Amino acid sequence: MFALLWKDLQIEFRTKETLASLLMLGLLTLLILSFAFDPMSELRGEAAPAVLWVVVIFAGVLGINRSFLTERENECLHGLLLAPVDRGTIYLAKVAGNVLFMVAAQLIVGPIFVLFFNLPLTLALLRLAAVVLLGLIGFAAVGSLFAAIAVRTRAREVMLPLLLLPLAVPVLIAGVKASDRILAGKTLGDVSQWLHLLLGFDLVFLVVGWLLFEYAVEE
User: Fold this and answer.
1) Does position 45 have pLDDT exceeding 80, yes or no?
2) What is the C-alpha R_g of the chain?
3) Which end of the chain is more exposed for a tag (fewer CB within 10 A), N or C?
4) How far apart are CA 63 and CA 98, in angstroms?
């Protein structure tokens, strides 16, 4: 798995396409949404959690799609499937790579989000980061499975969001609810029900993806 993950990282180090796309879409989405609210309005602070997760979801869809489009070029995906490695391992490597790329993008977009929404620099931001990480893992688990299916279709750029976003609704709801309470000063214990939902979602779809990936990539 680590060799496959390292391969994806090396490709990204050379091309920088996925991370650059994630950053551009994330920053543009954040910029547009931040200007939709009056800087002095209380609604701006209340909308911050929803804006954060819209940025995460939009950028995540693009990044996950790019990870499989890269493999499709020159039939690299076909060659990868011929390698003497369990296909579930390929899936886990893809999930890990997508999570790393999304985390890297959020490390840059996150501080700008804090600045735009004038959030205080407190421990709440670390708790918020933990919630976002759980959400990213679940989103990548579902997205990597459906991206393997969508990449073989003609309307691959449209197909992935259509397949992924409905199933990602639990992640979005739990993420927004937990983020809202954390930014209001609550602890992780106060949002444990939402954290349990995110953790359960992550575990279920990691197992489901690992089991079904072999069938998703069959010709």
Assistant:
1) no
2) 18
3) C
4) 7
